């Protein structure tokens, strides 16, 4: 079974609108971490946001927030007031026991002017 | 700029050859991770080193090997290269105090012809 599932291969969003990128995960661990990374066309992986499984508050980093619903095992990324520079691949990832990350297949987000 | 340096940025070689990819982690980071990103497999964890010692192993082929040196830089050696080894290879490092946040280098694009 996939540990990280991103069901949206691609999304088109109008500039300045909010966008939600879906991510569901599968783990039996009690302690785990969830991440979102951005990969622009230049190729580098940019850390966006982190949520620990014991964190009670949803993580926020500027325009990024993580909608963490533990019972549903979902960790959706919300980008507010989207900008043209937000066009990129977005990867959800999970760290279980140990330190390696397992990545989803990604969502390609395109912001339309 | 993540602070993680990878060289070379691009590498073109032939089947059967051997190459070495180099990674310098962020100053002070003891953990180094190697990931492979290909179109069909997505982002796959290969191997992790911590302070010179192998810490975790993922989907790394026997033809591949890695090491971390006393100055903490790491090298990934790929031998008997096949067409299917063409991929983007990322190195990442993490802070001992904040192991959940991985900082990625810009990657080495390997093309095997």
Topology, please?
The complex is a heterodimer of chains A (113) and B (113).
Chain A: E1 4-5, E2 10-14, E3 19-21, E4 24-25, E5 33-39, E6 46-52, E7 60-61, E8 64-69, E9 74-79, E10 88-95, E11 101-103, E12 107-112
Parallel strand pairs in A: 2-12
Antiparallel strand pairs in A: 1-4, 3-9, 5-6, 5-10, 7-8, 8-9, 10-11, 10-12
Chain B: E1 5-7, E2 10-13, E3 19-24, E4 31-38, E5 42-50, E6 53-57, E7 64-68, E8 74-78, E9 87-95, E10 98-104, E11 108-112
Parallel strand pairs in B: 2-11
Antiparallel strand pairs in B: 1-3, 3-8, 4-5, 4-9, 5-6, 7-8, 9-10, 9-11
Can you characterise this structure?
The complex is a heterodimer of chains A (113) and B (113). Chain A has 113 residues and is an all-beta fold. In chain A, 0% of the residues lie in helices and 50% in strands. Chain A has strands at 4-5, 10-14, 19-21, 24-25, 33-39, 46-52, 60-61, 64-69, 74-79, 88-95, 101-103, 107-112. In chain A, strands 2, 5, 6, 10, 11 and 12 form a six-stranded mixed β-sheet that branches. Chain A starts with a strand and ends with a strand. The mean pLDDT of chain A is 93. Chain B is 0% helix and 58% strand. Chain B contains no helices and eleven strands. In chain B, a hairpin with a 2-residue loop joins strand 9 and strand 10 (98-104). The interface between A and B is medium-sized, with 23 and 24 residues.
């Amino acid at each position: 079974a996939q540990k990280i599932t991103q069901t949206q291969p691609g999304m088109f969003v109008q500039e300045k609108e909010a966008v939600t990128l879906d991510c569901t995960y599968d783990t039996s661990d009690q302690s785990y971490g969830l991440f979102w990374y951005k990969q622009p066309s230049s190729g580098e992986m940019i850390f966006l946001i982190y949520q620990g499984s014991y964190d009670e508050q949803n993580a926020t980093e500027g325009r990024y927030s993580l909608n963490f619903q533990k019972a549903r095992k979902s960790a959706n990324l919300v980008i507010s007031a989207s900008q043209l520079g937000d066009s990129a691949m977005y990867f959800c990832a999970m760290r279980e026991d140990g330190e390696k990350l397992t990545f989803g297949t990604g969502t390609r987000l395109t912001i339309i002017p | 700029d993540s602070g993680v340096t990878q060289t070379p940025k691009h590498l073109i070689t032939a089947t059967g050859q051997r190459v070495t990819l180099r990674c310098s982690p962020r100053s002070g980071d003891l953990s180094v991770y190697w990931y492979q990103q290909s179109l069909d497999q997505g982002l796959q964890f290969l191997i992790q080193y911590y302070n010179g010692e192998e810490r975790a192993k993922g989907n790394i082929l026997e033809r591949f090997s890695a090491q971390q040196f006393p100055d903490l830089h790491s090298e990934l050696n790929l031998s008997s290269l096949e067409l299917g080894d063409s991929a983007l290879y990322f190195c990442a490092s993490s802070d001992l105090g904040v192991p959940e946040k991985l900082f990625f280098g810009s990657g080495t694009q390997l093309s095997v012809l």
